[in-house]
Amino acid sequence: MADQEITLMKGNEAIAHAAIRCGCDGYFGYPITPQSEVLETLAAEKPWETTGMVVLQAESEVSSINMVYGGACTGKKVMTSSSSPGVSLMQEGISYMAGAELPALIVNVMRGGPGLGTIQPSQSDYFQACKGGGHGDYHLIVLAPASVQEMADFVDLAFTLAFRYRNPAMILADGAIGQMMEKVVLPPFKPRRTEEEIIKECPWATTGRVGMRQPNIITSLELRSEEMEIINNRIQAKYRKIEETEVRYEEFMLDDAEYAIVAFGSAARIAKKSIEVARAQGIKVGLLRPITLWPFPTKEVCKLAGQVKGILSLEINAGQMVEDIRLAVEGRIPVQHFGRLGGIIPDPDEVVDALKRLF
Amino acid sequence: MTREEIIEKGQVVYKKPTLLNDTPMHYCPGCSHGVVHKLVSEVIEEMGMTDKTIAISPVGCAVFAYKYIDVDWQEAAHGRAPALASATKRLWPDRLVFTYQGDGDLACIGTAETIHALNRAENITIIFINNAIYGMTGGQMAPTTLLGMKTATCPYGREVSLHGYPLKITELAASLDGTCYVTRQSVHTVAAINRAKRAIRKAFEYSMQGKGSNLVEIVSTCNSGWKMSPEKANKWMEENMFDFYHLGDLKDKGAEK
Amino acid sequence: MTEEIIIAGFGGQGVLSMGKILAYAGLMEGKEVTWMPAYGPEQRGGTANVTVIVSDDPVSSPILSSYDTAIVLNQPSLEKFEPKVKPGGTIIYDGYGINEPPTRKDIEIYRIDAMDAAAEMNLIKTFNMIVLGGLLKIHPVVKIESVLAALRKTLPERHHHLIPKNEEAIRKGMEIIVKQ
Q: Which chain A residues are within 8 Å of C35, Cβ to Cβ?
């Protein structure tokens, strides 16, 4: 395989290839539509024979996430992927990892819910991904790819951020991004870190008491309330730093915009087409696309409130991110939501109609 | 004679393993956990694996095992220790990886993780403390609670029509192709303690030789939960538990040629 | 140039793989491409469809309200997508799968008897390549050489001996497509 290979593949396949290439040490997963191609691709690529990456099909998502927890405890680069119902099952383990401050990557290729729901695309796990999801006060770093290329690129980025802050990161995609094929330039191969490098970079990791150092203990348990508050405060301070430093977003045709659409992931792609259509009809509209959903680009949305007459939150759900937008604009301009449910993706004409109807 | 003089003259007949630190244990007097902690510490030390051991503690009475034995520890969510161990061992194949779990953790909420880790022939050992009750939460019914036994959630005694049967998960484990060594021990006498130690050593060695998964059950007492004196609890265990949970090796694939 | 195409038919007719070959051929010509399937149980015998966009510019939405070209291979697909063809756009339909042909006057309508031709040639599996040939005749979105290169790239080596048959099928499709 050449380093800079241009190819056509599904978003799910891109995740798998990017994982192998970024030096991921282990993948633990369980099949669920519409993301099974991640595990299938890894199984077909057999990275254990090339990079030495471990790939394991677990007995459940509960087990996958706890395998990730165990692997992350040892300082290795480990990940899992699933889709909405499976990610619900993982919430316990994710909360433990956030509490124990462990770096890891969780990919959620969302499908419509609630319950078993549908296998068609949805963005209805925004709250779950960005507001905690499991128990306790915690956040994941949440990245929202809008193309197959970003599916590939965000794997390495997610690991980088996860290790920088010792915090689990999530790639929040949806069935459309997972299943569609696009041109993708795969990232170059990065070797997996050696055990010596891991021990040096992650002195906290449970690698065995190498050199007879003091024991390392990874736990999220602390029964003394005063101590637990100190731990919580430290984690919260870390979150504030992430909020200050790691906000990522894209702006599209906002310069002269009178209205703005805020949308992430595949909804942002639809928004771009809607903007073409709307502008052809003389409606000046632009797009702000949060790339990090947590930390949310609050300041940027707030700034937008000083420029445009209204914001449409385009989401493939019943209105979740719209709450963060409203918090950001502090009531200065109207903020409306448009979305479709049940696994239906709104088409660009519908979005333009919604713009006209709601403002 | 001072401590040093005794050591100098080679007269030590008993000592605390160095891996077992001085943190006061939270276990109730008479509990089997302390003995098993000592055995695990001794075996790691004797195998020279202190710098290569990664242990996983459960949720249950042994949740704080990491405070007492000086190796690297991961504290798992309730029942999930075998999943953590599976990944850890696969990512660090030359490390000694074991879980330390109770009956509620291993045979109830974590049954799936237990069965599948064992059946995948993960090269790990599960140390399984079976005291037939939930100790930490205050003595509720466990999957291993004997018929007729009284607990906080079966105060009139466990009854088949209400609660089903006690689960012999070790027999289940022995039937799995992935397991190498499956044994049931106890620590109620010196002889039993010695046998239990040999079993733990054997399990750890098989796991390091890549022979598959190993389960060492220790039939234990919970005198607080059982509401008995330690002495009485030991007697009750002998009279009631051993009849249902037979001691001895259930499977030793490692010994076969 | 941007060509927005929907290909729809029964699962098993090769709808998704035809779209994939087309997208891959576009990629090999350095174009931007998106292949967006309606995934799910449709793959196992229900109706299947895929949106393929081939463009000189980055593709915005993979989900479209209307299409330049609809390739419809069964009656339910025709009913679903005929109204969604842009005025001045194109419908290509298979004569075997459609008994009530399209009726719109503001679009170009082509018929291709690909199923019959595939049966005649005893190459039933190349049905989708015959249809693709028809498309390329009227809208040369990509070059036939790129399609063959895409086949070489996407087919496993053990199936490479079938590439000449596929080429034959594409050329057959170019011959038999007729304007209605």
A: 8, 180-182
State the pairing for strand pair C2-10/C47-55. antiparallel
Q: With 0.90 as the threshold, say if the pTM is over it.
A: yes
pLDDT of residue A1: 42
Neighbours of chain C (3+ CB pairs under 8 A): A
In chain A, DSSP assigns E strands to 6-10, 26-29, 54-57, 78-82, 104-110, 141-143, 168-174, 181-185, 217-218, 249-252, 259-262, 285-290, 292-294, 310-314, 335-338
Interface of A with C in 128-187 (CB under 8 A): 175-176, 179-183
Q: What's the gap between Cα C146 and its chain centre? A: 15
The structure tokens 């984690």 sit at A235
Assess whether chains C and B touch, using the rule of 3 or more C-beta pairs within 8 angstroms. Answer: no
What's the pLDDT score for residue B257? 66
Name all domains of chain B by residue range, CATH numbers in brackets: 26-255 (3.40.50.970)
Question: pLDDT tens digit string along A294-313?
Answer: 999 999 999 999 999 999 99
Cis ω for the linkage preceding A203 (within 30 of 0)? no
A291 close to A144: Cβ distance less than 8 angstroms: yes
Q: Return the structure tokens found at C128.
A: 């989708």
Residue A110: name the closest of A118, A99, A100 by CA: A118
Q: Are B126 and B216 in contact (CB under 8 A)?
A: yes
H or E segment at B118? helix B111-119
Q: How far is B116 from chain A (nearest CA, A)?
A: 7
CA proximity to B88, closest of C91, A205, C111, A142: A205
Nearest chain A residue to B67 by CA distance is A217
Distance (Å, rounded) from C-alpha C156 to C-alpha A354?
Answer: 46
Sorted by sequence, the CB contacts under 8 Å of residue A58 that are 6+ apart come out as A28, A29, A30, A64, A67, B83, B116
A→B contacts (Cβ < 8 Å), by residue, are 25-26, 28, 54, 56, 58-60, 62-64, 66-71, 73-74, 76, 78, 92-93, 96, 100, 195, 206-212, 215-221
Mean pLDDT for back-to-back runs of 10 residues, chain B (257 residues): 80 88 94 96 98 97 96 97 98 98 97 98 98 94 97 96 97 98 97 98 98 98 94 96 98 89
ipTM over 0.90: yes
